[in-house]
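User: Good morning. I'm curious how phosphoric acid mono(formamide)ester would be positioned relative to this chain. Could you predict the structure with it bound?
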Amino acid sequence: LRHFLTLEGLGRPLLENIMDRAESFSSVTEQTVKKVPLLRGKTVVNLFFENSTRTRTTFELAAKRLSADVLNINIATSATAKGESLLDTVRNLEAMHVDMFVVRHAASGAPHFIARHVAPHISVINAGDGRHAHPTQGMLDVFTIRKLKGGFAGLKVAIVGDVLHSRVARSEIQALNLLGVQEIRVIGPRTLLPAAVETLGVKVFHTLEQGLEDVDVVMMLRLQTERMSGAFIPSVHDYFARFGLTGKRLERAKPDAIVMHPGPVNRGIEIDPEVADGPRSVILQQVTHGIAIRMAVMSMAMSPDGGDKTA
Ligand code: CP
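Assistant: Good morning! Here's the predicted structure, ligand included:
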């Protein structure tokens, strides 16, 4: 594991290895131990060309808890605004002898492009590219499920909403398929589901009432209007009326079903605030687990043997 760009094509043992490693880092994230020295002397660059609250800050915290130095590049005040290209930006940072780029970009494939051009000692971690992939989000989501449900066998998981524009949904579906859940459902209007979505290994539903029946996990998605570019944008009122997760609709799921959301949450659009803040919600636990998962991925990428005992 040198770069971490997508979950596609990875094996189940590697995903289990990342989660096991994250488990061992959980005590660090809970601050019983402040730091571990695994990345001492390394420099991690957070290169976020799109906005972020959770991903950027948990990567920063994770890097600091691994004892790395962290550079947060403010794109708005960087030379990007003067026309500097992505590759020139990367090459200039590389000349400062950095060791890792954590990249978020609106263009699908941007982290892969950077990975193809950096020096062999540098790792690139994808922190979300376009509508393509958000692999550490996918990993922290399945890590949360494993912690709360004890495993994946026999689980029915529903992913609800704007799957079409969601890099999170793609990475979640890849991870859940690799880990062998019983059933993955996607629930949403036809206009917000990818063409031939069934080929991803999911069952398709167009009503919450049918799709939530007997599920163990409900993963909500927001409407990603920033990626809709003139296409169909549903009215917020109509959308909540048809696809908003309410307490009443959640009664269709199993009594111990958990409610997840990668954030940011748009209350009253895809989810009722009472559900988002209710006893089934594990949304903030997902955020906490993001630190341990990102520590695991970064430490494996910087490990001389790739940290992959399964390779
Ligand atoms: N889940 C997620 O990617 O959130 P941010 O956009 O705040 O990083």
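Residues 247 and 278 are 9 Å apart (CA to CA). The longest strand covers residues 123-129.
Let me know if you'd like a different ligand tried.
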